[in-house]
TrEMBL record:
Residues 34-184 form the HhH-GPD domain. This is Adenine DNA glycosylase. The lineage of its organism: Bacteria, Bacillati, Actinomycetota, Actinomycetes, Jiangellales. InterPro entries: DNA_glycosylase (IPR011257), Endonuclease-III-like_CS2 (IPR004036), Endonuclease3_FeS-loop_motif (IPR003651), HhH-GPD_domain (IPR003265), HhH_base_excis_C (IPR023170), HhH_motif (IPR000445), MIG/MutY (IPR044298). Gene3D superfamilies: Helix-hairpin-Helix base-excision DNA repair enzymes (C-terminal) (1.10.1670.10), Hypothetical protein, domain 2 (1.10.340.30).
Length: 287
DNA sequence: AAGGCGTGGCT
DNA sequence: TAGCCAAGCCT
């Protein structure tokens, strides 16, 4: 089933740098972390700058964590930068500076969960692991299960299906192909079924493209949340050369209770380092 | 296991 | 316009 995926991929794949012939495991790992919840177009320039500046895990491991956060720029979810820095240090300390190749070792690294461990093991090392990201889940929901969207949380049935479908011959190419189809054609909001190589056998199409049934899909509040305040605080610290006085942080949000809560949260998360005299900076410390 | 966690483009 | 959405992870 889904035999048309790889032929479609060979003619429609985007030319992305972390897929190039000369890709490195470190470059693949960096790309996968950056791509967590962040679109390709925003990742690409930051990825180039990152791997040029830190070509090996050891290069990043020597830096302060704050430098990683600053280089992360506006990709969002800056905890990922902190965890990537932590992963680089763990790779140096525990793996002789080389990105480990096994799923079991990869998933032990900070910021690497099931998806990213499977993706790096597959795309950097050619191993066979089901790569179950949001694109794959959506394509399988439609093409196989006849539903517009997959369940909110990944189910055992989805894992079983992904494992059953994954070929033993060149699993990584199959995985990147189904991901690419989800990203370019079988998109969430307005799928381009006319351009889809699976359209004639797609269970969702054959069922008449029914609307989503099941519990509503969870949205993410933004305006007025602590996340918005945290984002503003981090922007000030990122754009500053050195320590920042409290009064400059106080200027980003009027509600003092919420502002303090957000700042405390950033400190607790290790994203901000408090200094004496009411000054703050991006973290210099070990973690 | 449900919710927190950034950012910006697209419809 | 205001949501919706983007290669998730962690607790």
């Amino acid at each position: 089933m889904l035999d048309a995926l790889i032929p479609w991929y060979t003619t429609h794949a985007r030319d992305l740098p972390w897929r190039a012939e000369d890709r490195t495991p470190w470059g693949v790992l960096v790309s996968e972390i950056m791509l967590q919840q962040t679109p390709v177009a925003r990742v690409e320039p930051v990825w180039h700058a990152w791997v040029r500046r830190w070509p090996e895990p050891a290069d990043l491991a020597k830096e302060e964590p704050g430098e990683a956060i600053r280089a992360w720029g506006r990709l969002g979810y800056p905890r990922r930068a902190l965890r990537l820095h932590g992963a680089a240090r763990a790779i140096v300390d525990e793996h002789d500076g080389r990105v480990p190749s096994s799923y079991e070792e990869l998933i032990e690294l900070p910021g690497i969960g099931d998806y990213t461990a499977a993706a790096v093991a597959s795309f950097a090392f050619g191993h066979r692991h089901p790569v179950l990201d949001t694109n794959v889940r959506r394509v399988l929901a439609r093409a196989v299960s006849g539903r517009r969207y997959p369940p909110n949380a990944t189910t055992a049935a989805e894992r079983r299906l992904a494992e059953e479908l994954l070929p033993y011959d060149d699993a990584p190419t199959w995985s990147v192909a189904i991901m690419e189809l989800g990203a370019l054609v079988c998109t969430a909001r307005a799928p381009r079924c006319r351009d889809c190589p699976l359209t004639e056998t797609c269970a969702w199409r054959l069922a008449g493209s029914p609307e989503h049934d099941g519990p509503p899909r969870r949205g993410q509040a933004w305006a007025g949340t602590d996340r918005q305040v945290r984002g503003r605080l981090m922007a000030v610290l990122r754009d500053a050369d050195g320590p920042v006085g409290k009064e400059r942080l106080d200027a980003v949000w009027a509600d003092g209770v919420q502002r303090e809560r957000a700042l405390d949260g950033l400190v607790a998360d290790g994203l901000v380092e408090p200094l004496a005299q009411g000054y703050y900076r991006l973290p210099s410390g070990p973690a």
